[in-house]
Specification:
359 residues; mainly alpha; two-stranded antiparallel sheet; 69% helix
Length: 359
């Protein structure tokens, strides 16, 4: 805080007017109050803290971001949302009243008002606030997403799906797809997925998550269709997901060809070996995984262990599992299976208890 205040004094000057700067946005030039780099830094750090779930830290950082030459309705509204999540409702209301005096036609202000009304069980008032946010920002997907969420919570999933399907934004279409899958509405899911794919390559994360949801809900054909787009190939996790979809469709040879043709950036040898093993090619999987182990690639030790468990025996497999460098894999589960096959059920139980205990 002290550093920010010193910087503010230097930038503004004792007794001088608030400095202003010219900005050009969407081709239009405007002159507004100068915003200190310190305020930008605090705001960005606040957003990161909020995204990480640390609302207490976010609240304090938003406070610092507002301690500049002029207060900001958007930042005050974001701080109010952090206060709502912390259960500090009176503080949130005071912040929103302040934001209202600064800029009453701000989308974020009405989104935050809606969230506050929801916490206070004023569902009608919350819906009205979200509708107002949508009116103020007709191109923004966030008000529509929140309206749809409220409709779904109120048992009006069909209306929510209809609303989301009319929005041509990746976020809204991704939500429409998820809702269609949850309602087992295959036609709506296909329509949302097709519309979502039209936003590639900008909508890569949304399309990959939609494909993951399709696969998880027993729709491998839809997942494979989504992931077949050329723009998807280099997205993290996309190739392995497509291979899983092909395997679920019984197209083991296509899955094998897909991973063997992949670059190291698209699929590491651990991923390649896992797919090959599921495709019924344990020998090739073992050889590919062994190369990955020699190069220290994550996931390769686990894939080698499962391959050896099928081809050679529990002793060799356990040694491979023990050499896994990535703790996020199912190496411990493989170790437990190898111990069971080696006639050591008590030790295997200890390993499984470690897995279930998170240790």
């Amino acid at each position: 805080m002290r550093v920010a205040l010193v910087a503010l004094i230097v930038l503004v000057g004792c007794g001088s007017a608030i400095p202003s700067v010219a900005r050009t946005l969407d081709g239009r030039r405007s002159v507004g109050v100068f915003v200190s780099p310190f305020a930008y830094e605090h705001f960005v750090r606040a957003e990161l803290a909020a995204a990480a779930g640390d609302d207490a830290q976010a609240f304090e950082l938003y406070e610092l971001a507002r301690a500049g030459a002029q207060d900001d309705a958007y930042v005050a509204s974001r701080q109010a949302e952090a206060a709502i999540r912390l259960g500090r409702l009176d503080e949130a209301e005071a912040l929103l009243d302040l934001a209202d005096t600064l800029a009453p036609v701000t989308e974020e202000l009405w989104l935050a008002r809606g969230e506050l009304r929801l916490v206070r069980e004023d569902r009608a008032g919350a819906m009205a606030a979200f509708v107002e946010a949508s009116r103020l920002a007709p191109r923004s997907p966030e008000p529509v997403l929140r309206i749809a969420r409220r409709l779904e919570d109120d048992g009006e999933a069909a209306r929510a799906l209809e609303l989301l399907s009319t929005e041509d934004t990746p976020a809204a279409l991704r939500a429409a797809f998820a809702l269609a899958v949850a309602r087992d509405d295959s036609l709506a899911a296909l329509q949302a997925a097709t519309a979502l794919a039209a936003h590639l390559p900008l909508a890569l994360p949304e399309v990959v998550e939609a494909a993951r949801a399709a696969l998880g809900s027993g729709r491998p054909a839809l997942a494979a269709r989504l992931l077949a787009h050329p723009a998807i190939e280099d997205a993290p996790g996309a190739l392995e997901l497509r291979a899983e979809a092909l395997l679920a469709l019984g197209e083991g040879e296509a899955a094998e060809a897909l991973v063997l043709a992949a670059s190291p950036e698209q699929a590491g040898r651990g991923t390649q070996a896992r797919v090959l093993l599921e495709a019924g090619r344990p020998e090739i999987a073992r050889d590919v995984a062994a190369v990955g182990v020699s190069l220290g690639e994550p996931g390769a030790g686990t894939a080698l262990g499962w391959s050896l468990l099928e081809l050679e025996g529990p002793g060799e497999a356990a040694a491979a599992f023990a050499g896994e460098v990535d703790p996020r894999t199912d190496a411990l589960d493989g170790t437990a299976r190898a111990l069971e096959l080696a006639g050591l059920p008590a030790v295997a139980r200890e390993v499984r208890e470690r897995i279930s205990g998170g240790g």
